[in-house]
């Protein structure tokens, strides 16, 4: 965690003012992938501002006791995602799940993902999918442990393959 971040304080809905902090968090999280992410992968800061105001998306942030962003999870309709595999209007897509590297293994990511999935379930979604980098062994282990299953679909280039995972969601899960 960056210097000065306090202990975990909870989860709240993201607001537009969180965009810069979320983009910085994404940078810190992607640094843990720097040994295998291709140099051509760039960060898209401007997407966060758009994602945070898009009414069809649910974006939650984990915050410290001093309200500093230390995690983010963003989910929206799969139909609006890159390369949708289902056209079912009840299928969601998890665009991002990042926590500050200092919080890996703390349970914050699991709590953040569970709250985001509960929010989309209560909005009528019955399934959710995500794309995870094939070389992100820690992330893939986390997703399997929390109930996601591999679909067998692969996208991306040989240097940066992404695997599709899916989970069934239900209200009260």
What's the layout of helices and strands?
Blueprint: E1 8-13, H1 19-31, H2 45-53, E2 58-64, E3 69-77, E4 91-99, H3 108-122, E5 127-133, H4 137-145, E6 149-157, E7 160-168
Parallel strand pairs: 4-5
Antiparallel strand pairs: 1-2, 2-3, 3-4, 5-7, 6-7
Reported for the largest beta sheet, the result is:
7 strands, mixed
Work out the number of β strands. Answer: 7
Helix-strand pattern, N to C?
EHHEEEHEHEE
CATH fold-level assignment? Aminopeptidase
SS field, number of helical segments: 4
Beta content: 25-35%
Write out the strand line-up for the largest beta sheet, numbering strands in chain order.
1-2-3-4-5-7-6
Helix/strand/pairing category? alpha+beta
Low-confidence stretches: none
What percent of the residues sit in helical stretches (DSSP H or I)?
Answer: 25-40%
What CATH architecture would you give? 3-Layer(aba) Sandwich
CATH class: Alpha Beta
Distance between the termini: 29 Å
CATH superfamily: Gcn5-related N-acetyltransferase (GNAT)
Number of structurally distinct domains: 1
* Rg, Cα atoms, Å: 15 Å
Mean pLDDT figure: 82
Word description of this protein:
By secondary structure, the protein is an alpha+beta fold. The chain contains four helices and seven strands; from the N terminus they run E-H-H-E-E-E-H-E-H-E-E.
Brief rundown of the structure:
With 173 residues, the chain is α+β, with helices and mostly antiparallel strands. 27% of the residues lie in helices and 32% in strands.
